[in-house]
Predict the 3D structure of the following.
Amino acid sequence: MQNYIFRTASNQDISAIKELVFKVLLEFGLQPDPSSTDADLNDIDANYLNHGGMFYVIENADGQIVGTGGIALSSSKVCELRKMYLAPSVRGFGLGKKMLHLLLAEAKKLGFQQATLETAAVLKHAIILYQGAGFHPYQPDHLSPRCDQAYKLDLN
Protein backbone atom coordinates (compact mmCIF):
# COMPACT_ATOMS: atom_id res chain seq x y z
CA MET A 1 0.00 0.00 0.00
CA GLN A 2 1.29 3.45 -0.87
CA ASN A 3 1.90 6.19 1.67
CA TYR A 4 -0.96 8.48 2.57
CA ILE A 5 -0.63 11.81 4.32
CA PHE A 6 -3.21 12.98 6.85
CA ARG A 7 -3.10 16.76 7.17
CA THR A 8 -5.19 19.70 8.27
CA ALA A 9 -7.31 21.05 5.44
CA SER A 10 -7.55 24.70 4.48
CA ASN A 11 -9.70 26.82 2.21
CA GLN A 12 -7.25 26.08 -0.62
CA ASP A 13 -8.58 22.49 -0.55
CA ILE A 14 -12.26 23.41 -0.90
CA SER A 15 -12.74 22.50 -4.58
CA ALA A 16 -10.99 19.10 -4.19
CA ILE A 17 -12.92 18.38 -0.97
CA LYS A 18 -16.27 19.24 -2.57
CA GLU A 19 -15.46 17.14 -5.64
CA LEU A 20 -14.69 14.07 -3.50
CA VAL A 21 -17.62 14.50 -1.09
CA PHE A 22 -20.18 15.11 -3.84
CA LYS A 23 -18.92 12.18 -5.96
CA VAL A 24 -19.20 9.78 -3.00
CA LEU A 25 -22.67 11.05 -2.10
CA LEU A 26 -23.87 10.50 -5.68
CA GLU A 27 -22.23 7.05 -5.75
CA PHE A 28 -24.58 6.04 -2.93
CA GLY A 29 -27.65 7.77 -4.37
CA LEU A 30 -27.50 10.69 -1.92
CA GLN A 31 -27.92 14.26 -3.15
CA PRO A 32 -25.25 16.88 -2.48
CA ASP A 33 -26.76 20.02 -0.98
CA PRO A 34 -24.22 22.85 -1.40
CA SER A 35 -26.63 25.53 -0.16
CA SER A 36 -27.66 23.82 3.09
CA THR A 37 -26.34 20.50 4.44
CA ASP A 38 -23.01 20.88 2.65
CA ALA A 39 -22.66 24.68 2.99
CA ASP A 40 -20.02 24.08 5.69
CA LEU A 41 -17.65 23.12 2.86
CA ASN A 42 -17.80 26.65 1.40
CA ASP A 43 -15.42 27.88 4.13
CA ILE A 44 -13.38 25.21 5.93
CA ASP A 45 -11.45 27.80 7.95
CA ALA A 46 -14.54 29.61 9.29
CA ASN A 47 -16.79 26.58 9.81
CA TYR A 48 -14.21 24.20 11.29
CA LEU A 49 -10.71 25.48 12.06
CA ASN A 50 -11.67 28.90 13.45
CA HIS A 51 -14.87 27.66 15.08
CA GLY A 52 -13.60 25.18 17.67
CA GLY A 53 -13.31 22.17 15.34
CA MET A 54 -10.94 20.50 12.90
CA PHE A 55 -10.97 19.23 9.32
CA TYR A 56 -8.51 16.74 7.88
CA VAL A 57 -7.82 15.45 4.39
CA ILE A 58 -5.96 12.37 3.25
CA GLU A 59 -3.61 12.83 0.30
CA ASN A 60 -2.19 10.07 -1.86
CA ALA A 61 1.40 10.06 -3.16
CA ASP A 62 0.32 12.24 -6.11
CA GLY A 63 -1.07 14.93 -3.79
CA GLN A 64 -4.69 14.12 -4.64
CA ILE A 65 -7.25 14.34 -1.84
CA VAL A 66 -8.70 10.84 -1.40
CA GLY A 67 -10.34 11.23 2.03
CA THR A 68 -11.96 13.83 4.25
CA GLY A 69 -13.23 14.13 7.80
CA GLY A 70 -14.14 16.90 10.19
CA ILE A 71 -15.33 17.66 13.67
CA ALA A 72 -17.64 20.62 14.08
CA LEU A 73 -18.61 22.38 17.27
CA SER A 74 -22.18 21.58 18.36
CA SER A 75 -21.84 22.93 21.90
CA SER A 76 -19.01 23.44 24.38
CA LYS A 77 -19.12 19.74 25.28
CA VAL A 78 -20.42 18.11 22.07
CA CYS A 79 -18.91 17.91 18.61
CA GLU A 80 -20.29 16.41 15.43
CA LEU A 81 -18.30 14.19 13.10
CA ARG A 82 -18.92 15.47 9.60
CA LYS A 83 -17.92 14.77 6.03
CA MET A 84 -16.08 11.47 6.54
CA TYR A 85 -15.68 10.22 2.98
CA LEU A 86 -13.15 8.09 1.11
CA ALA A 87 -12.59 7.73 -2.62
CA PRO A 88 -13.53 4.22 -3.84
CA SER A 89 -9.88 3.51 -4.78
CA VAL A 90 -8.68 3.76 -1.15
CA ARG A 91 -11.45 1.93 0.69
CA GLY A 92 -10.57 -1.25 2.55
CA PHE A 93 -7.07 -0.18 3.61
CA GLY A 94 -7.99 1.04 7.10
CA LEU A 95 -7.86 4.73 6.21
CA GLY A 96 -11.42 5.34 7.43
CA LYS A 97 -10.60 3.75 10.77
CA LYS A 98 -7.43 5.81 11.03
CA MET A 99 -9.35 9.00 10.18
CA LEU A 100 -12.04 8.19 12.75
CA HIS A 101 -9.44 7.59 15.49
CA LEU A 102 -7.63 10.80 14.53
CA LEU A 103 -10.87 12.80 14.73
CA LEU A 104 -11.87 11.27 18.07
CA ALA A 105 -8.41 11.93 19.54
CA GLU A 106 -8.63 15.53 18.33
CA ALA A 107 -12.12 15.89 19.81
CA LYS A 108 -10.82 14.74 23.20
CA LYS A 109 -7.85 17.11 22.94
CA LEU A 110 -10.23 19.99 22.19
CA GLY A 111 -12.15 19.14 25.37
CA PHE A 112 -15.32 17.64 23.91
CA GLN A 113 -17.12 15.06 26.08
CA GLN A 114 -19.36 13.59 23.39
CA ALA A 115 -19.25 13.08 19.62
CA THR A 116 -22.35 12.73 17.47
CA LEU A 117 -22.83 11.96 13.79
CA GLU A 118 -25.60 11.57 11.26
CA THR A 119 -25.53 9.03 8.46
CA ALA A 120 -27.67 7.14 5.97
CA ALA A 121 -28.50 3.43 5.96
CA VAL A 122 -26.93 3.01 2.50
CA LEU A 123 -23.50 3.78 4.00
CA LYS A 124 -23.27 0.31 5.52
CA HIS A 125 -19.48 0.12 5.86
CA ALA A 126 -19.38 3.50 7.58
CA ILE A 127 -22.03 2.41 10.07
CA ILE A 128 -20.05 -0.76 10.86
CA LEU A 129 -16.96 1.43 11.43
CA TYR A 130 -18.86 3.77 13.77
CA GLN A 131 -20.43 0.93 15.74
CA GLY A 132 -17.04 -0.77 16.02
CA ALA A 133 -15.65 2.42 17.58
CA GLY A 134 -18.40 2.34 20.22
CA PHE A 135 -20.98 4.71 18.73
CA HIS A 136 -24.58 3.96 19.74
CA PRO A 137 -27.80 4.98 17.94
CA TYR A 138 -29.77 7.87 19.43
CA GLN A 139 -32.71 10.05 18.44
CA PRO A 140 -31.63 13.66 17.76
CA ASP A 141 -33.98 16.64 17.69
CA HIS A 142 -33.35 17.03 13.97
CA LEU A 143 -31.73 15.02 11.16
CA SER A 144 -30.22 16.32 7.92
CA PRO A 145 -32.57 15.61 4.99
CA ARG A 146 -30.41 12.85 3.47
CA CYS A 147 -29.72 11.13 6.80
CA ASP A 148 -31.90 8.54 8.49
CA GLN A 149 -29.73 7.57 11.47
CA ALA A 150 -27.77 9.29 14.22
CA TYR A 151 -25.09 7.97 16.57
CA LYS A 152 -23.28 9.28 19.62
CA LEU A 153 -20.19 8.35 21.61
CA ASP A 154 -19.13 9.46 25.08
CA LEU A 155 -15.50 10.52 24.93
CA ASN A 156 -14.73 10.31 28.66
